[in-house]
Structure formats: structure tokens, C-alpha cells
Amino acid sequence: MVCFCFLVDQRRKLTNTKPAAGTCSRCGGGASVGDIKTITRFCYVPFYWKSWKAIICTFCGAILKSYR
């Protein structure tokens, strides 16, 4: 079971961003709307991916609201 956790990983990739109104509640930085692609890989071969939108802080990178 220990070896299995090293074979599966999940990556998030930010593909497109646009400025949005508002500020981050954690650090006070600006916000932007971005398209995020989540890729799940097994032995470095992607077998599942999903695209979704989220409002992201431009300074700390926190996901403030997600639209899945």
C-alpha cells in the first residue's frame, strides 16, 4: 500500500486568467478568474482530467471560490 501512494498524483494547471473585482479575504491581494485543469496521473500517465473555473488570489494563490 505504501508504494501505491507514490504512483498516483494530481496536478493543477492554471490555463487562462482574467482580472476580477474584489480582494482576497486572507491577504488583501487582488483577485482573478481562472480556468483550472486538474490532471490525475497513474505512473506518470494521465488517466483523468477535469476543467473548471475559480476565483483565485493573484498574490497568495488561494482559491477563493470554485465553479465546478
Give an account of the 3D structure.
This protein starts with a helix and ends with a strand. The radius of gyration is 15 Å and the shape is elongated. The chain has one domain (9-67). It is built from 1 helix and 4 strands, in the order H-E-E-E-E. With 68 residues, it is mainly beta. 6% of the residues lie in helices and 69% in strands. The model has no long low-confidence stretch (mean pLDDT 88). The chain has one helix at 4-7; strands at residues 8-23, 30-42, 45-57, 63-67. A 4-stranded antiparallel β-sheet has the order 1-2-3-4. The longest helix has 4 residues, at 4-7.
Please give the domain count. Answer: 1
Number of strands: 4
Strand order of the largest sheet: 1-2-3-4
Strand-and-helix sequence, N→C?
Answer: HEEEE
Outline the low-pLDDT stretches.
Answer: none
Q: Note the main sheet.
A: 4 strands, antiparallel
The N- and C-terminal alpha carbons lie at a distance of 31 Å
Number of helices: 1
Helix content: under 10%
